[in-house]
Amino acid sequence: MNVRRHHISGIAIAAATALGLGTLSACSTDSAAAGNTDKFDVVASFYPMQYLAEQIGGDHVNVTTLTEPGQEPHDLELSTKQTAELGEADAVLYLKSLQPAVDEAVSQSEVKSKIDAATLTKLEDHGDVEHEHGAEEEHAGEEEEHALDPHIWLDPVKYREVAEGVAKAFEKADPDHAADYRKNAAALTKKLDTLDTAYEDGLKNTATKVFFTNHAAFGYLAERYGLTQEAISGLDPESEPSPARIKELQTEAKADGVTTVFYETLVSDKTAKTLASDAGLKTDVLDPLEGITDKSKGDDYFQVMESNLSALKTALGAK
User: β-strands 61-65, 40-44: how paired?
Assistant: First the structure.
């Protein structure tokens, strides 16, 4: 449990610093490099970072994202234009190991403020949480960073700490707008507290605690609310499960009263539907919130998280 809390604050501060520094450097760069805006230009690597920057920064920040709506962030490749724009930004906020192409572009760019959220927190290896039976494979590859789970934003408590850290960094870097950053952050953290309470209350009393997902994005959420995530594939949404893994899940579904196999909007649902069909289970969407599209069940972080809660309550038999 403690590990989780450190976890949070880390990324929080990460994001925080990210934006804060962005603010600072915006003041010192010439207008052309800052995109001819009189705001702080922050490049976010993908939606959860973008949303945070927009909510905390409000009118004072100009935020762009490298991952377009509908793109699967794990597979992102950057265009020459995006790489050039990255180089002109005042700050970049990213999460190392989630998007290798972004990691490489950031390392080669001359952005003054490079904020890697992963260095500011301790990412956990959820291999043994996600699929105990696959733990050996996870631990065998422990030296690879990819075994660590980057999906911290799916835990509202962690995300709240990120917000608090961002606000502090903004206040320090741009004191003229400190009151606005504090106000924006207070509104956001209050909503995140409400969301956390809704999850805690909604998932407290359920018929089963086990849920099946397409890829292992929900380890932090499961840990926070006392659930067990069983992923068909691992942390990489495109990896194919072995026939042995599918058979294992079919057996487990019967043993643990699992009713539903979840898939997501940005990745093919073929494997999830095949498993569900073979095991006589239902399917539904559990969105890892890596991007918002018109297929998303909601227009922003909170709406999609509420939709996810509703889907989990149904699948787990909330009483």
Answer: parallel
